[in-house]
Write a structure and sequence with these properties.
The chain is α/β, with parallel strands linked by helices. Helices cover about 40% and strands about 15% of the residues.
Length: about 200
C-alpha cells in the first residue's frame, strides 16, 4: 500500500517559465549535454558525476560543459541558474501536493542548493526533503531513494516516486519504489501530468 509520494524537483514540481536570459546556444547545451559530456576527460567526468553534491563541483562542472560547447558561463548566468526567483511551480503542482494528502509528501532532488525557500515562497508543504548536496548521494544511486524513504519513515515498497527523467528518476524501481514517469515542458506549456500520474496510481 502506498503511504508516501516523493517528487523530483526540476522539471517535475518546478520549472523555468522563460529562457530570455539564456542564449539559444546555452539552452541547447543544457537540454542536450550528452555530446559534450562525452568529450570530457576522466577528471572532468568525475566532477560532472558529482556536480550535485557540492556547489563547487556544480560550478566547475558547468564551466567545463559550456567550455566544451564553445560557450562562456558568467557569474551572473550561474547565479540565475540557482536563483529561487527563476523557478516557478507548474500549474498543477499545488493541486498535486494537495491531493496526495493524507499520505506523506517528500522531495528528492539532485541539486546543489537549498530549494526549501522556493516551496516556502509558494506556501507548499513538504514533509521531508532529500537533497543530494545534503545526503551525499545523487540519483540514480539507490542510496538517494533510500534516504528519502528514511526521512519519511516509510519502506521503499510503500512509496511512489514521480519524476521526468527515465534514467535518474527511473532508478527508483531498483530501490524498490514504484515509479511514475511524467513528460515535462517549460512552466505555462505543460499539461496537468502530475494529477494524471497520481490518478493512474489511485491517488486523487
Amino acid at each position: 500500500m502506498i503511504k508516501a509520494v516523493v517528487f523530483d524537483f526540476a522539471g517535475t514540481l518546478f520549472g523555468r517559465p522563460t529562457y530570455r536570459w539564456l542564449t539559444p546556444e546555452h539552452l541547447a547545451v543544457l537540454r542536450a549535454p550528452a555530446p559534450y559530456i562525452a568529450r570530457m576527460n576522466a577528471a572532468e567526468r568525475a566532477v560532472w558525476a558529482a556536480r550535485d553534491l557540492t556547489a563547487l563541483a556544480n560550478r566547475s562542472a558547468y564551466l567545463t560543459l559550456f567550455r566544451l560547447a564553445g560557450l562562456s558561463m558568467t557569474n551572473d548566468l550561474f547565479q540565475r541558474l540557482h536563483n529561487p526567483a527563476f523557478w516557478l511551480p507548474y500549474a498543477d503542482t499545488a493541486d498535486a501536493l494537495s491531493v496526495v494528502r493524507p499520505l506523506k509528501v517528500g522531495v528528492l532532488s539532485n541539486i546543489s542548493w537549498d530549494i526549501r525557500p522556493v516551496f516556502a515562497r509558494e506556501s507548499l508543504v513538504v514533509d521531508a526533503f532529500a537533497l543530494s548536496f545534503e545526503i551525499a548521494f545523487s540519483k540514480p544511486s539507490v542510496r538517494a531513494f533510500e534516504a528519502a524513504c528514511v526521512r519519511l519513515d516509510v519502506e521503499p515498497a510503500e512509496c511512489l516516486y514521480v519524476g521526468d527523467d527515465p534514467v535518474s528518476d527511473g532508478a527508483a524501481v531498483a530501490a524498490g519504489l514504484t515509479f511514475a514517469q511524467i513528460s515535462t515542458a517549460p512552466v505555462g506549456r505543460r499539461e496537468p501530468v502530475l494529477l494524471e500520474a497520481l490518478a493512474s496510481h489511485g491517488i486523487g
